[in-house]
Protein: Diphthine methyl ester synthase
Amino acid sequence: MLHLVGLGLADETDITVRGLEIVKRAERVYLEAYTSILLVDKEKLEAFYGRPVIEADRELVETGSDDILAGGDKVDIVFLVVGDPFGATTHTDLVLRARELGIETTVVPNASIMSGIGCTGLQLYNFGQTVSMVFFTETWKPSSYYDRVRENIQIGLHTLVLLDIKVKEQSLENMARGRRIFEPPRYMTVAQCAAQMLETEEERQEGIYGPDSLAVGAARVGAANQKLVSGTLKELSTVEMGAPLHSLVLLGRRTHDLERDYIREYAVNKETFDASYVKGYGASL
Amino acid sequence: MLHLVGLGLADETDITVRGLEIVKRAERVYLEAYTSILLVDKEKLEAFYGRPVIEADRELVETGSDDILAGGDKVDIVFLVVGDPFGATTHTDLVLRARELGIETTVVPNASIMSGIGCTGLQLYNFGQTVSMVFFTETWKPSSYYDRVRENIQIGLHTLVLLDIKVKEQSLENMARGRRIFEPPRYMTVAQCAAQMLETEEERQEGIYGPDSLAVGAARVGAANQKLVSGTLKELSTVEMGAPLHSLVLLGRRTHDLERDYIREYAVNKETFDASYVKGYGASL
Structure:
């Protein structure tokens, strides 16, 4: 049987009791380690579980799924996923492959950033569709996310922006030469995201948002050292939030007074916050 | 200190290891028991924790929050919430009250229906805002949810509909006479929700959706006996999904082929599913 077990958001103790029981009795345990990361390393998980954990990189999951699933008709195989198992499409693929092989699947849900972002004080009901932000390069600055943001903004809803992570990426040169040398991991920061959003607006000029638009930066959601900051996109484009993972929420105009009070508490600057707020936000708009 | 601890979606083993540790060492443990329910009863939780659990009904939380928080500056108080602690506004109020009293708060996140609904095979990225459906009465059929659904439908997004539960409700007569007699709990079914949606459309006549619109019914998400059914709203209006809790997802037209393949597997009737699908769905529309 294949068990997709969610790990939650922060550390090794965020696994559920049910998830931990399954991990302890399984034949093999894989850790999905490229669409998100836990805030502790693999060794800490292994010590906590009292057993080895196999790191599954993109290559293994996308081309070696049959190795992961080998023997799954007889033994229990665990695939650990940071957050909730259904957060990323990849795992749907693994489930479909298991189904083809006649292997049963169970899922152990856990906290996901999609609901964990409620820690900001923003109501989950007031969020539109979630978007992803990738690292821009000199020549590649994809802005399809901007169209999704516009749809949310026009309705007055908040937008959760999930930030890119680059793990086990090869440089073009190393890839061309077939060298299995990997670049250091990179995790997008709130500041980088805010700056890229302003870059897109600069280019598209549709006035969907601007330097004075309000947003919330969230770092290490669910961890003891979680950090929240609210402010204008311009302010957030230089904010320092510390270690990964980061997320950003662009505020919708249909913000409730209770939400405003909550996020104002952790504003970079309450004066600029208030000045921006009165210009474009509030449930009555 | 006040600890808001998420219980997840199904049974007593869905608590996280961190959450369980906090419950075991706390001075008092409350269970929020009116915005959602766990699929096991309080006694099972008490046996699992090896300690008493105090049921907190709406009255206690809304008017007796200072009793809940009493001594919170010195001892650990746990407030257990089904799903994730930030799923409902009520708990934000409790946090704000704790803040006023100078009591620190921690949150232990867990799975929420907002992310757990990914078990349907529908991508969380493709959901718009979430709406709530309350029990209609002869004279009260609130349809503000319909406006939210329209906004999602116009963009092509799925809509998660959370279904009403009535726990410890008094009849008007008993309330007027001051009798503390409560009606039996009621949990809205997928069938009731689908029927009410069609009733609203019938009344509003805006053609936002209709009897042939596709939807997914989900019962007991995250539990071993989870059940998923896809079909037209008309089909779902008579479907039998068993014990609570139920949720419904109204399909958006921007459905991806992979999503279609996944939900088609559990269609009430694959023929009517296909017939409805070709008329109005698909990412290319």
Q: What stands out?
A: Chain A touches chain B through 52 residues (CB under 8 Å).
